[in-house]
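Dear Dr. H.,

I hope your travels went smoothly. While you were away I took the liberty of generating a structure for the chain from your last submission, since the lab meeting agenda had it listed for discussion. I wanted you to have the full record in hand beforehand rather than looking at slides cold. The sequence, exactly as received, is reproduced here:
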Amino acid sequence: GDPHSPHIDRGLGNMMWQTKLRYENLASRRVQPEARFEGGYPEWPAVDRIFNSWPSRIGFGTAYTLFYIAFAPHWAYFLLLPIHYVMGPVHGAIVNYCGHMLGYRSFDTPHGDKSRNTLIIDFVTWGELFQNNHHARAMSPNFAARWFELDPTWPIIRVLSWLRIITLPGSARSRRSSSAEAPAAEAPAPVAT
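The corresponding predicted structure, in token form, is as follows:
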């Protein structure tokens, strides 16, 4: 049921087009997310409307262009500008394609899930290429699961929690602020290695 798997859609381009359509339907609320993905996070409808608008997208593109005009030391740097315009979808394509087609599996995830961990130390996409770990432990903020894996975002999350900027699920502070805690889902069994 993973909507971002290249095993569901034919080809990388079709996978990313279908992802775009799903995102637009969720963002516009034409489709409701599964109940398990609702709540536990702040919602700012005005911010969502602003940043999902074309004027905002054009504004960011203009800001990237102005930055290049001000700081590019050579005209050839402008050849990189189109990459900045589409870096979100490119990042999504790398994570979703490689995270299902390349690498190793730490967990035997159910229902024909073919997710994989692509990099042992994932500084390229900040832990996002630990897709198999993420599918097995979907609600864990730390995507690393084995002793040799390192999710570079996890230490940042820990510092933000220590500074009380965020509250980690399952922490004492989180339990005090929550009136009812959902039962923990059982993680899939590790793959024998």
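Two observations you may find useful: Residues 95 and 128 are 6 Å apart (CA to CA). The longest helix spans residues 54-71.

With kind regards,
E. W.
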